[in-house]
Automatic annotation (TrEMBL), chain A:
Coiled coil: none annotated. It comes from Arthrobacter cryoconiti. The lineage of its organism: Bacteria, Bacillati, Actinomycetota, Actinomycetes, Micrococcales. Residues 1-23 are annotated as: Disordered. Gene3D superfamilies: NagB/RpiA/CoA transferase-like. This is Lactate utilization protein C.
UniProtKB/TrEMBL annotation, chain B:
NCBIfam families: LutB/LldF family L-lactate oxidation iron-sulfur protein. The lineage of its organism: Bacteria, Bacillati, Actinomycetota, Actinomycetes, Micrococcales. Residues 85-295 form the LUD domain. It comes from Arthrobacter cryoconiti. Keywords: 4Fe-4S, Electron transport, Iron, Iron-sulfur, Metal-binding, Repeat, Transport. The keyword Electron transport applies. This is LutB/LldF family L-lactate oxidation iron-sulfur protein. Gene3D superfamilies: Alpha-helical ferredoxin (1.10.1060.10), NagB/RpiA/CoA transferase-like (3.40.50.10420). Residues 325-394 form the 4Fe-4S ferredoxin-type domain.
Length: 211, 506
């Protein structure tokens, strides 16, 4: 008998008393009761708590803000689906900033990604109650590797994509898309339980909330 | 969905690997209790995490509703496990993942080794996984000439020091910053000899040490926190980003997951991703969670394997009283509130799974007769704190009592002559069967007082009762019993007609 058949028959034998399947009581909160402004404020508070940098800016000013944040950077990477106009503030600059575009036709190597200063992506949805930003690999967020290897992640988040509780985010997401849920920069508490931000993931997380 | 089983009921097949205590819990605990550094660190750790957890939980208005949902979802999972495993297999496979089944630790180790050898690699990176610790994968790979590098900071510390984890959440909690610095200086190549003991500097040293490994790794091995049956999705919950590195950079990803880790649907994640981080680290959400379903073309590993592991889980499932132990999501909340664990630490439990959950899960998976695991169900005062803390409401005290019963039965089956315990039970049966019997026995109390001597403690009881005095003294019995005192104080009491009622008033 194959291992699969063996294990399956062991399971069925173990369940020969046919235990009942209970109904699932979903009496927890499934939707928000906060206004958009309250959700935004809550998310900002949570992200600051996690030692991320947060900026709330009107959408029209996003390119300028991005240019300001990247004033000292020499190179960045962006996913191929990131709308060009976000980068307009950077392009205006004398052209000293190198912008690498990662696309299915032109995938950047690990070492190329390791040598850029930052990555700029959007996000699919954010959960204000837990301070979580979720990336789902769509074209303006890119392959998982590009938001992982560079040491700084700048994330553009539309305020309309902020929900309050996790079930609202789950309802919006496609399960089979490769997802990364990010709640602050990487951290460890493994040494005497003292929290240290920045281990293997990007050590700096900047979130631009666009209103 | 439930399936009817028509075959012959088979005997449970128990698990192997690092599931056994090799010495009895009291013996191991006695040794561990002497480690004062461990005790101090553990007390600090468990109390800190406990407070954080309480705050994180108190913040949610619907925590109890979430626990109810979590518990029901897990019970539904176990009741429908065959159908859910089939659904998971279909969905994961449809998206390019490859599934392997392992009956026990040995088989799982062989599968993983063969998969690594196929790639031609001799080095792999690993992200913290209890399942691979349970099957002793690292040691097995080493014998096969494959080096497995732990990448979680605490696991790295423990591995570099050739030690064992003492806590499932913070495995290196028994080491302080100076010890960690010394380990790094001794074991890491290219480490700055002037390395300080600052946690931030130590974390940076770990980052440097592992970065090259991550960026060049071809094969990674992981565990999984959840598998979603209706989509075929796997989940890893972590903090440092080492998980993301392992799950994203290599060409080949091999995940080892127990068959009980399934959840029926994608939607169930909304419950468990609220229960787990708050119960575990006391955070609103852990820094990183990764989800993948088979292979995503062009993104992440293109050669994706999953080993589904039994290794005694079906034996636990066959125990109708004990099967809810499989609902465990390894949050460690029960350990952090346990007065026994707080003092003995994780090493005393022998198995990969320590603390209250380990005390039931290990003997359920190996069988109560396996080595010293029969001592584990006694490693508890049955105070119930674990049950209250458990996000999926596993009634650990009830299962502990059930397993103690199993142990007594199996001991009795072994010995034909009545044991001391049997004799004691017979004696107490006689004593409690009639008030006059107790009166008679209580006349002996002053003798106990005499035995205790001036110090007013009894340091050693005879026979099997000696176990009780092994780690504690017994205060001398009083010279008179409560009943004797009562009679003296109430010289002409009303005739006692209804003792039960009297008790109620006490
Ligand atoms: S038994 Fe409950 S509290 Fe203990 S680790 Fe498992 S889920 Fe957490």
């Amino acid at each position: 008998m194959s291992a699969r058949d063996d294990v399956m028959s062991r399971i069925k034998s173990a369940l020969r008393d046919a235990p009942p399947t209970p109904d699932i009581p979903r009496n927890y909160r499934l939707a928000t009761n906060k206004t958009a402004a309250q959700r935004c404020e809550q998310l900002v508070g949570r992200l600051l708590d996690y030692k991320a940098n947060v900026y709330v800016v009107p959408t029209t000013q996003a390119p300028a803000k991005l240019a300001q944040l990247l004033a000292d950077a020499e190179s960045i990477v962006v996913p191929h689906g990131l709308e060009e106009h976000w980068l307009s503030g950077l392009r205006d600059d004398a052209g000293s900033l190198r912008i690498e575009v990662d696309s299915p036709e032109h995938r950047l190597s690990v070492s190329a990604l390791d040598s850029v200063d930052a990555v700029v992506t959007t996000a699919a949805v954010a959960v204000s109650e837990t301070g979580t930003i979720i990336l789902d690999g769509s074209s303006s967020q890119g392959r998982r590797i590009i938001s992982l290897v560079p040491d700084r992640h700048i994330c553009l988040l539309a305020a309309k994509d902020i929900v309050e509780v996790l079930p609202e985010a789950i309802a919006r997401l496609n399960a089979t898309a490769p997802q990364t849920w990010i709640s602050g920069p990487s951290a460890t508490s493994d040494i005497e339980l003292e929290r240290v931000e920045g281990v293997h993931g990007p050590r700096t997380l900047d979130v631009l909330i666009l209103t | 969905m439930s399936s009817t089983y028509l075959g012959m009921p088979s005997l449970p097949v128990f698990g192997t690997g690092n599931l056994n205590a090799t010495e009895s819990f009291p013996q191991a605990a006695k040794r561990e209790l002497k480690n004062t550094q461990l005790r101090a660190n553990l007390a600090h750790a468990t109390h800190t995490i406990r407070d954080k957890r309480e705050n994180a939980v108190a913040e949610l208005p619907d925590w109890e509703e979430m626990r109810d949902a979590g518990s029901a979802i897990k019970n539904a999972t176990m009741a429908n496990l065959p159908a859910l495993l089939e659904a998971f297999e279909t969905n994961f496979t449809a998206r390019g993942g490859i599934i392997h089944w392992a009956r026990d630790a040995q088989e799982a180790n062989e599968i993983v080794t063969a998969l690594i050898k196929e790639t031609g690699e001799t080095e792999v990176v690993k992200v913290k996984s209890m399942a691979t610790a349970e099957i002793g994968l690292n040691e097995y790979l080493q014998e096969q000439g494959i080096a497995a590098f732990e990448t979680d900071l605490a696991e790295l510390i423990v591995q570099l020091d050739h030690d064992k984890p003492s806590h499932i959440l913070v495995p290196a909690i028994h080491k302080n910053r100076n010890q960690i610095r010394d380990i790094f200086l001794r074991e890491m190549e290219e480490v700055d000899p002037g390395l300080s003991n600052e946690p931030a500097r130590l974390a940076e040293a770990a980052r440097r040490h592992l970065r090259k490994k991550f960026l060049s790794a071809k094969v990674a091995i992981s565990g999984a926190n959840f598998g979603l049956a209706d989509t075929g999705t796997l989940t890893v919950v972590e903090s440092e980003g080492n998980g993301r590195m392992c799950l994203t950079l290599p060409d080949t990803l091999i995940t080892v997951m127990g068959i009980e880790k399934l959840l029926p649907s994608w939607r169930d994640l909304e419950v468990f991703m609220q229960l787990l981080p708050r119960s575990s680290t006391g955070e609103r959400m852990n820094p990183y969670t990764s989800l993948w379903t088979g292979v995503t073309p062009g993104d992440g590993p293109q050669n994706v394997h999953l080993v589904l592991l039994d290794n005694g889980r079906t034996a636990a499932l066959a125990d109708q009283m004990g099967r809810t132990a499989l609902n465990c999501i390894r949050c460690s909340a029960c350990m952090n509130v346990c007065p026994v664990y707080e003092r003995t630490g994780g090493h005393a439990y022998g198995s990969t799974y320590p603390g209250p959950i380990g005390a039931i899960l290990s003997p359920l998976m190996t069988g109560i007769k396996s080595e010293e695991n029969n001592s584990l169900p006694y490693a508890s005062s049955l105070c119930g704190a674990c049950f209250d803390a458990c996000p999926v409401k596993i009634n650990i005290p009830e299962i502990l009592v059930h397993l103690r019963g199993e142990d007594v039965d199996s001991q009795r089956a072994k010995v034909k002559v009545p044991t001391q315990m049997d004799l004691m039970m017979k004696a107490s049966e006689w004593a409690f069967s009639d008030g006059s019997h107790i009166n008679l026995l209580e006349k002996g109390l002053p003798i106990g007082k005499l035995a205790a001597g001036r110090a007013k403690v009894i340091k050693k009881l005879p026979g099997i009762a000696a176990g009780w005095t092994q780690s504690r003294d017994i205060p001398a019995p009083p010279s008179q019993s409560f009943r004797q005192w009562w009679v003296k104080e109430h010289q002409s009491p009303e005739p006692r007609r209804n003792p039960a009622k009297e008790e109620d008033q006490l």
